Fold this protein.
Amino acid sequence: MSIFNLKEILSVSLILFSVIDILGSIPIIIDLRKKSGKIESVKATLTAGVIMVAFLFFGESILRLFGLDVESFSIAGAIVILLIGMEMILGINLFKSDPEMKTTSIVPLAFPIIAGAGTMTTIITLRAEFDLANVLVGIFLNLLLVFIVLKTSGWIEKKLGKSGADILRKAFGIILLAIAVKIIKTNLHF
């Protein structure tokens, strides 16, 4: 019997696809590219991949080492998502870019947008439910899609035009705010 299970791979891939939401992040990617001038697609994808795989193997241990629980980690990630959403809606800059840095690849793109708290907590959950090899394949497939979207972000922006990109940015800003509020609400226990 094969170690790889197509049904599990498909399930893991779809779950991660919905959590990473790289298509929904297109307005953020376009915005980050405008701020910094360039996105290093390979660097961002590899960094996100390293974070995801490291969290697959060591996530729970890392959180325990710092005395953290998954809920606290999720709320912290939600706050970052909330701030990114505020930037998109209000047209303000909360995350200052380093003038010497000509690319935006690691922060906030690889982490927390691609491999954020939601992705990492999902990976912990997937590890408990599915075979490790199938989770790894699901991560790889999502990283492939992430790379394609990052690589074609300039083309996507041209197709959308300035008005389309602005509308998309505002709409997804609201969606990000709602996602952040939902994550916070789900993980707060009174």
Observations:
- The longest helix spans residues 153-187.
- Residues 6-187 form one domain.
- The chain has a mean pLDDT of 85.
- The chain has one domain: 6-187.
